Amino acid sequence: MTKVSAIIVAAGGSQRMGEIDKMFAPVAGRATLVRVLDTFQKCRKIDHIVVVMSSRNIEECRRLVAAEGWSKVKDVVLGGPRRQDSVIEGLRRTKEADWVIIHDGARPLVTIDLIEKGLEAAKETGAAVAAVPITDTVKYAKKDDIVIRTLDRQYLRAVQTPQVFRADVIRNTYKFTPGEVTDDSALVEKAGYKVKLYMGSYANIKITTPDDLAMAGALLK
């Protein structure tokens, strides 16, 4: 039997949220992080959950886990200064896993279906990422805002999480983390592994600004 661990990365600083802490901000009456953890707890394919938190939120998260009784949340750990540092802290708690799923704690509309589709897609190459086709026309420009070219959107995808990796693939990749990255699959690509894209959801938005909270609430309704 295989063991699947999920790392929920929730150690960001919410800089673009003003005074709102997006992890505990309500989305249709329930906190962002609560919605994420509820979904992973209910997914039968998930065996073990690690939550990576900032120093200001880690104790509140531990209290929340105890109050909600999420049996699969085995570890709540302190994140690092960069996203990849937080992922590394999570990986240290997944040593028995055969598969690792990494998900942004700020994506509260994730579904069980998205998680399970990712696990299935990852069987092909050892790495799979939720993504959606871009619907807008995209221009490539430099600092002076003069357009260099218009990109062909039929080949463009907006990447989301969950991102699913065979455990050896993501562990080997994170031994080498040059520079700062905001996407785990980008590191996997640089390490020479093939990454499979699978259909995400346009509703699977990331909470970055206060407007995103309102949009997420509207989507749930």
Could you please describe the fold and organization of this structure?
The chain is an alpha/beta fold and 221 residues long. It has one domain: Alpha-Beta Complex (Spore Coat Polysaccharide Biosynthesis Protein SpsA, Chain A). The protein is 30% helix and 27% strand. It is built from seven helices and eleven strands. The strands form three sheets. A seven-stranded mixed β-sheet has the order 5-4-1-6-10-7-11, sandwiched between helices. A two-stranded antiparallel sheet has the order 2-3. Strands 8-9 form a two-stranded antiparallel sheet. The termini are far apart. The mean pLDDT is 93.
Main sheet characteristics:
7 strands, mixed
Q: Based on helices, strands and strand pairing, what is the structural class?
A: alpha/beta
- CATH architecture call: Alpha-Beta Complex
* Total beta strands: 11
- Order of strands, main sheet, comes to 5-4-1-6-10-7-11
The CATH class label is Alpha Beta
Provide the fold topology:
Layout: E1 4-10, E2 26-27, E3 30-31, H1 32-42, E4 48-53, H2 58-68, E5 73-78, H3 83-91, E6 99-104, H4 112-122, E7 127-133, E8 138-141, E9 147-151, E10 157-166, H5 167-173, H6 184-190, E11 196-199, H7 210-220
Summarize the entry for a quick read.
This protein has 221 residues and is of the alpha/beta class. It has helices at 32-42, 58-68, 83-91, 112-122, 167-173, 184-190, 210-220, and strands spanning 4-10, 26-27, 30-31, 48-53, 73-78, 99-104, 127-133, 138-141, 147-151, 157-166, 196-199.
List its traits:
27% strand, alpha/beta, 30% helix, 7-stranded mixed sheet, Spore Coat Polysaccharide Biosynthesis Protein SpsA, Chain A, globular, two-stranded antiparallel ribbon, 221 residues
